[in-house]
Amino acid sequence: MSDRHPSSGPLVEGPHDPEHDPTASYALDRGYVQRLTERLVATTGETVEVRSPIGGQPLAHIPQSSDADVEEAFRRARRAQAEWARTTIDTRAAALLRLHDLVLDRQEEILDLICLESGKARKHAFDEPMHIALTARYYARTGHEHLDSKRVRGLIPGLTRVEVNRLPKGVVGVISPWNYPFTMALCDGLPALLAGNAVVAKPDAQAMLSALLAAELLADAGFPEDLWQVVAGPGSEIGPALVRRADYMQFTGSTATGRSVAQGCAERLIGCSLELGGKNPILVLRDADLEKAAEGSVRAAFSNAGQLCVSMERIYVADQVYDRFLERFVARTEAMTLGATLAWGNDMGSLISRQQLETVTRHVNDAVAKGARVLTGGRARPDLAPFFYEPTILEGVTPAMTCFGQETFGPVVSVYRFHDEADAIARANEGELGLNASIYSQDGRRARAIARHIRCGTVNINEGFAASFGSLEAPMGGMRQSGLGRRQGSEGVLRFTETQSVATERLMRIAPSFGMSDELYGKVMTASLRILNKLGRA
Ligand code: NAD
Questions:
Q1: What predicted TM-score, i.e. pTM, was given to this entire model?
Q2: pLDDT per residue over 58-85, tens digit each?
């Protein structure tokens, strides 16, 4: 374990807790930035400046990788993986548990960096180390359950012994987005490491520092240094450079990019899992607890300023309770504390970039121009931070408006009435995406029955997204254009393995025909198959 870390964390100027000074300026210690960026395989000599959405000040200059750097990252990762694959599951699980503790111990440093890089509220940043701790512990404690070789039934009971092995794929490429810069960079790689793989990671350009801190924490937890490589550069160049070399690809990001990653994987006949976008619906049934539904809808629509793949952008409310729900939802939204600072206490922080601000502004302006009503919000707040946008509720959104079917990925939600549940289900299933949905009802059985008709990979009942996201044993991912494969649970680790079946024939040979003529053998086998079926054997 390393003793290199200053106990003080990364900040060097500006008040640490500027509750009353939204324009406070923060800067990172240069030595700290250098220590993180030295982890990159990046020799081009070029750098890209990263600025913080809080105050807009420069944070770091990130060295950029070339195709040759990606090649070198894979060379190092392959060498490290060959050794790592020989370690036991217990050794790998122990490293995951040390990571669990380290992430909790160095939480303040992690939160400072996430907030600085993304502009999000500290309480939403907290979700990230928490999710990593949950993921590390879950996979450490269940490694044997998923990965131990398993005996299965053989061809001839007692004579054919078959075991199924789970072998690592090799080097897994991980491409991650900026919205959860720490957990998205790290969470999928943890089960990959547990299964005996190495990782080459390409985080988003706006999220490099948090991803590099994640790499440092892995090394400090005792994972071999070269097992986790990080490269940096434009997604359209460095992303395909990973796809050309990896043994398996894990991608999180937009549906459009996911499709191009899948095409690259198809060319090489390698597997991939894709965690993509959503246009996620909430159904508020007429028997819902409306306070609970309003409170949950605020969190579900505005956590991380709506820049969350599973966040809610459409709310369908039963006619009978529409006005009462809306009154509560609007009031709770207007009571939110807004601010872009490092301090605890804000309910929503900033968008990450000018591009995000432009998309959100465009979606809202388009809706308003075509007749939608803004019930609250609907404007940028440069007084709080350069890219800040208020939490916004729209009513009267129609299919002619961009935000009706397209993911906004910002703090904008549209509210609609529904007349009966069949209508609500049909509208929840509109469009091509199918990531996450939520149902509010006091009748759990009915809500679970409705859930089965919704074409989404997760459905949360009386919650927006945290119940499924935080349940590590539950697979998570999208149906339809929202993804392929699942993170979390057994599927979340088995995707990083090759299945190998080893069948041993004992005592006698299967062929040729136990000494019978071919014709007699055919008759005996036909009779045996009939008997086995009558006996109810698999
Ligand atoms: P994006 O697709 O633009 O970028 C994601 C990553 O892909 C980045 O690292 C980027 O550099 C890289 N990339 C860009 N072009 C590439 C290419 N041609 N080949 C390979 N990689 C390339 O997505 P974004 O806009 O940064 O992220 C927001 C999107 O991600 C939203 O749609 C959101 O819903 C989705 N998302 C999904 C999940 C999930 O778990 N389902 C989680 C977070 C975000």
A1: 0.95
A2: 899 999 999 999 999 999 999 999 999 9
Instruction: Identify whether 456 is a catalytic site residue.
Output: no
Active site (annotated) includes residue 128: no
For the CA of 234, the nearest atom of ligand 1: 11
* Domains, in order of start, for the chain: 65-276 (3.40.605.10), 280-481 (3.40.309.10)
d(CA 307, CA 360): 11
Q: How far is CA 270 from CA 152, 185, 203, 262, in A?
A: 26, 21, 21, 9
Please tell me the distance from the alpha carbon of residue 364 to that of residue 369, in angstroms, as a whole number. 9
pLDDT tens profile 422-452: 999 999 999 999 999 999 999 999 999 999 9
Say if CB 486 and CB 149 are below 8 A apart: no
| Nearest Cα residue to atom 13 of ligand 1 | 235
Nearest CA to ligand 1 atom 10: 235
Q: Which of the 8 DSSP states describes residue 199?
A: E
Of 275, 407, 421, 463, which is the active-site residue? 275
- Closest CA to ligand 1's atom 27: 253
Q: What are phi and psi of 7, to 5 degrees?
A: -70, -20
Q: Environment class of residue 323 by beta-carbon count within 10 Å: exposed (0-12), middle (13-18) or buried (19+)?
A: exposed
Alpha-carbon span 170 to 192, nearest angstrom = 9
Write out the DSSP string of 124-173.
HHHHHHHHHHHHHHHHHHHHHHHHS-EEE--SSTTTEEEEEEEEE-SEEE
Ligand 1 lined by 276 (C-beta under 6 Å): yes
Q: Is the CB of 242 under 6 A from ligand 1?
A: no
For 314, what's the count of Cα atoms within 13 Å in the CB-facing half-sphere?
30
